[in-house]
Design brief:
151 residues; alpha/beta; 4-stranded parallel beta sheet; two-stranded parallel sheet; extended
Length: 151
């Protein structure tokens, strides 16, 4: 299964063709989310799509986008990006916080902006209960200290 359309995927597609290994192209891009892609990126998509044995899309809009690049509709399958929310639901009596509740779901990494969310909430005059669901990557090990040498 090849995801997206970059140089690594082009190499994988080429390898699959040489070895006669069928592959699936998976995407979550839509005509709207990819409206600003360049000419070379469009060529990459067409190259991958015209050689794929099948297609996995995350939505109907993604499936339509794959078809617009040449995917055969009968080879397209939707695999919605969903989560079983039952394990995250709180019973009404558990959620007795005053005001509104804001749910953040995502990785606890810098590029997600959680470091901006918390100070922003502190600036509001409303009672907002923040619930954070996510994991952070393991911390990096500190560099090893040089051992003293006998001298």
């Amino acid at each position: 299964i090849c995801m997206e359309y970059n140089a690594t995927i082009l190499q994988a597609v080429h390898w699959c063709r040489r070895k006669k290994v069928p592959f699936l192209s998976w995407s979550d891009g839509t005509a709207n989310s990819e409206k600003a892609i360049g000419k070379l990126q469009r060529i990459f998509r067409k190259y991958v799509i015209h050689r794929a044995a099948g297609f996995i899309s995350s939505s109907t809009a993604t499936m339509k986008h794959q078809i617009s690049f040449g995917a055969m509709p009968e080879l397209c399958h939707k695999s919605l990006l969903t989560v079983d929310i039952d394990k995250y639901l709180m019973k009404k009596e558990e959620n007795n916080q005053p005001g509104k509740t804001l749910l953040y779901v995502g990785s606890l990494i810098g590029r997600k902006g959680i470091d901006l969310l918390i100070p922003a909430l502190a600036e509001t005059d409303r009672a907002i209960h923040l619930v954070i669901v996510g994991e952070s990557p393991p911390p990096e090990s500190p560099p090893a200290r040089p051992r003293p040498t006998a001298g």
